[in-house]
Design brief:
It is a single chain. The chain is of the alpha+beta class. It is about 30% helix and about 20% strand. The strands form two sheets. A five-stranded antiparallel beta sheet has the order 6-5-4-1-7, with no helix packed on it. The termini are far apart.
């Protein structure tokens, strides 16, 4: 065997090892990036679609006024500055809380599963999204589950404890007579 034959063998051997290691690192990098991506937020059957905010009529008038002539621009600017007599929708005031209840928000990023009784084997009756406002009504005896009420639709159910955060300092509100 000559020196050139030994050199070709060693060079081929090292190139083959480098290709195997490089492809192994590439495949590992691919799977690590795919497995570390967070899963999409679950969509529950009772989720409300997110409504897009409607542009205000005053903003629309101001946009059309910008392209008008200076003589009409001043008159329309005055009328645009005055609010239209349109009916406004009032946000419902929250109900007074029962004794021992408090308002909270969901802190679990994927949302929570609403169940009909405490326990993982209980029937699923809905879901609650991340950062959604709820009312904590009571806790289970073992403190692992809490009974909550969704303020938007007054739906009640049980969720795993430790996934909500209190949003007001008072435990109860005074009852109004």
């Amino acid at each position: 065997m000559s020196w050139s034959g030994i050199f070709k063998f060693l060079l081929g051997f090292f190139i083959a090892i480098a290709l195997l290691v490089g492809s192994g690192v590439g495949v590992a990098f691919y799977f690590v990036t795919k497995l570390t991506a967070p899963p999409p937020k679950p969509i529950f059957a009772n989720d409300k679609p997110i409504a897009k905010p409607k542009p205000s009529p005053v903003a629309n008038k101001a946009a059309t006024v910008a392209g008008a002539s200076p003589a009409t621009n001043a008159a329309e600017t005055v009328s645009a500055a005055q609010p239209d007599a349109t009916p406004t929708t009032e946000t419902p005031t929250p109900k007074p809380l029962e004794p021992g209840a408090y308002r909270a928000r969901v802190t679990w990023r994927n949302g929570l599963i609403l169940r009909d009784s405490p326990g993982t084997e209980s029937r699923r009756i809905g879901g609650i999204g991340y950062n959604q406002q709820i009312v904590v009504v009571t806790e289970s005896e073992d403190k692992r589950w809490i009974k909550i009420r969704v303020e938007e639709n007054n739906e009640e159910g049980w969720v795993k404890a430790g996934n909500v955060e209190r949003v007001e300092s008072e435990q109860t509100q005074p009852a109004t007579d």
